[in-house]
Specification:
Elements lengths: L23 H17 L3 E2 L5 E3 H9 L3 H5 L3 E3 L5 E4 L4 H10 L9 E10 L11 E10 L4 H17 L6 E6 L3 H15 L8 H9 L10 H7 L11 H17 L4 E2 L13 E6 L8 E7 L3 H4 L7 E7 H10 L12 E5 L2 H16 L4 E3 L6 H10 L4 E5 L1 H6 L1 E6 L5 E5 L3 H12 L3
Bound molecules: histidyl-adenosine monophosphate.
The site of histidyl-adenosine monophosphate has 28 residues, from strand 6, strand 10, strand 11 and helix 11.
């Protein structure tokens, strides 16, 4: 029986796929830029388990959210505890922050993470059951400068990756006081339209009416055109926060659009919410999203500290890069590829390859007993810079004919001089 990968997941391969976004070299490149950028902004890496007690997400993301009510991979462990694969990172980071008493270590904490997240969604391009996020969480600062910093960090990562043409949409969902008043106004407006709303929106009406605002259903959207705007119901504090954020973004030269219909699907958001949109992504056009979640840490029985963050889906990042023809690094290739003929030569080649490898020169060796032709094709496929066939003549002479793959030039190099030669050549090719 041939096994197939589970639906909604994918392999990331060193070669053997035409889909650029599934090549491991590209993931490593993107992750490298992310790590460097996060360091420039003073964010330290946090790694939490990929599963948690299910209650964590019930409380953090919200029981009525789609993520928790429909999309979690939940199972009972052998101890009868309900466990869920993490659908997102923020709740886990807050759990860890509280559990490790990190608030005692200073007033401000800035974390980033890269890792897989799991959502049982209907798979389609840009939407997977296992996807990967780069996310950040900044804890301790309630001022809008902190919101602006995380937005700028996200945009800086995209810029460094060469991604163009993104749009930033921002909104505020107010503080809890503003939301209570707005919720009542929105429900009053929607009530007469209830029979005409989509079944999903009808279900959300009592439990989570604000979520109806970002319904993608065309009929819902038409009704919503006349809906009240949260921006008219903000408390003075929430309004001031949002206006200041807009001013700071202007000041930093960040272009954005205010979109009062953004609410995002996670219940912990308070005040600022934002999304970054790419037209290269089709239906799943949000490449990254985030917001402020003052009150969340308190709800985990931690100190009452404010927080703000975002996450961006790496699949979507890589797909936009591929669509825009951004710089795509290739996998590393061997400097030399050695092809032995016979068992004595195999030992010699392994010795030579090992010496190169121990000295930081990437070396390949043909250990399968294929025909020379196939071995040479392997050297070409791996894009080796040099290659050499070593048989009885070369063994007797203690020297090889080293071929430059691109120019096909050959030169004789003694076995004991191979490493020095390659070191000199690669220093020449990549001056330090
Ligand atoms: P989110 O908006 O649910 O936010 O997801 C963040 C990003 O993850 C999305 O913008 C998208 O790029 C990617 N994403 C989500 N689901 C999928 C999927 N099924 N397949 C592929 N990509 C996906 C959060 O998760 C929040 N924790 C973000 C945050 C951090 N807010 C504050 N701090």
């Amino acid at each position: 029986m041939q096994f197939q990968i589970p639906k909604g997941t994918f392999d990331i391969l060193p070669y053997g796929t035409d889909e650029a976004w599934r090549q491991s070299a590209l993931w490593q490149y993107v992750e490298g830029i992310i790590r460097n950028t996060a360091a420039d902004y003073g964010y330290g890496e946090i790694r939490t388990p990929i599963y948690e007690r299910s209650e964590l997400f019930d409380r953090g993301v919200g029981e009525t959210s789609d993520i928790v009510s429909k999309e979690m991979f939940t199972f009972e462990d052998k101890g009868g505890r309900s466990i869920s694969l993490r659908p997102e990172g923020t709740s886990s980071v807050m759990r860890s922050f509280v559990e490790n008493h990190m608030a005692n270590l200073g007033p401000v904490h800035k974390f980033f993470y890269i890792g897989p997240m799991f959502r049982y969604e209907r798979p389609q391009s840009g939407r997977y059951r296992q996807h990967h996020q780069f996310g950040v969480e900044a804890i301790g600062v309630g001022a809008p400068e902190q919101d602006a910093e995380v937005i700028d960090l996200l945009l800086q990562v995209y810029r460094r990756l060469g991604i163009r043409g993104l749009k930033v949409h921002i909104n505020t969902v107010g503080d809890p006081a503003s939301r209570i008043v707005f919720r009542t106004a929105l429900m009053e407006f929607l009530r007469p339209h209830l029979p005409n709303l989509s079944p999903d929106s009808q279900m959300r009406f009592e439990k989570n009416p604000l979520r109806i605002l970002d319904s993608k259903d065309p009929k819902d959207r038409e009704i919503l055109q006349r809906a009240p705007s949260i921006l008219d119901y903000l408390s003075d504090a929430a309004k001031e926060h949002f206006e200041q954020l807009c001013r700071i973004l202007d000041n930093l030269g960040i272009t954005y659009q205010i979109d009062p219909k953004i609410v995002r699907g996670l219940d912990y958001y308070n005040k600022t919410v934002f999304e970054v949109i790419s037209e290269n992504l089709g239906a799943q056009s949000t490449i990254g999203a985030g917001g402020r979640y003052d009150g969340l840490i308190g709800s985990f029985d931690g100190p009452d500290l404010p927080g703000v963050g975002f996450a961006t889906g790496l699949e979507r990042v890589l797909q936009v890069m591929a669509a825009q023809g951004a710089k795509m690094p290739k996998n590393g290739h061997p400097c030399i590829y050695l092809i032995p003929l016979g068992s004595e030569a195999r030992v010699q080649c392994l010795q030579l390859a090992t010496k190169c490898r121990h000295n930081g020169i990437p070396a390949g060796i043909e250990l399968s007993s294929q025909k020379i032709q196939t071995a040479l094709q392997n050297a070409a496929r791996l894009e080796a810079t040099y290659c050499a066939v070593i048989g009885s003549d070369e063994m007797a002479k203690g020297a090889m004919q080293l071929k430059t793959m691109v120019t096909r030039e050959t030169r004789e190099v003694r076995f004991e001089e191979l490493l020095t030669f390659l070191q000199k050549e690669s220093a020449h090719a990549h001056p330090v």
